[in-house]
Amino acid sequence: MDERLQKYDDKMSKTKKSLEADLATIRAGRANPHILDKIQVDYYGTPSLLQQVANITVPEPRVIQIQPWEAKMVKEISKAILSSDLGINPNTDGKMIRLILPELTEERRKELVKDVKKRGEAAKVAIRNIRRDANDAFKKLAKADVSEDEVKELEDKIQKMTDKAVKEIDSTVEQKSKEILTV
Questions:
Q1: Per-block average pLDDT, block size 10, for the chain (183 residues)?
Q2: How far apart (Å, rounded) are the C-alpha atoms in residues 55 and 68?
Q3: Which of 2, 102, 128, 150 shows a CA-CA span of 20 to 30 A to 25?
């Protein structure tokens, strides 16, 4: 691939990966340990990600089990989960925390799908902004020593990359929406 296009391709890939990571944190019908990815716990005065202070497993379809490395972290983890926007009350037995995920209501599922689509739309806007930046850079090349045909070819290639990225984002959003709506 042309090195002039490579950096824009990398930016588009990062945008798609970012969206996928973002969507992984949205809770669908079954337990997914990734919904805890953004939760930080106070570990001896240092904010640390939950996965760094505990073992997270999914023993049943609607249960997430959190086993802290140290027993005294149970309170801190419970507090972090309660203060997060998950809306789940942690059950604690002193050594371990269980998160029992309630069934999503139809209304809540529709809200989540709307949110997913909104995030997908934001990712597509970011992709189009990358295309615009690329086209601006190519127009500057035209003023230098690059032929108009070459610039036109670069613009065509960046358009194809944009179309492909938008299609992949649509596919990702569609998959996540299906996952959320599946009861």
A1: 84 92 76 81 86 88 87 87 81 87 82 91 94 90 80 90 94 89 74
A2: 6
A3: 128
Which tokens go with 119? 């995030």
Alpha carbon distance 48, 60 (integer Å): 26
- Length of the chain, please? 183
Burial annotation 42-56 (CB, 10 A radius, 16+ → b, else e): ebeeeebebeebbeb
| 81 alpha-carbon distance from chain centroid | 19
**pTM exceeds 0.85:** no
User: Using CA of residue 72, residue 58, residue 63, residue 25, what is the dihedral sign?
Assistant: positive
- SS3 track for 44-88: CCEEEEHHHCEEEEEEECCEEEEEECCCCHHHHHHHHHHHCCCCC
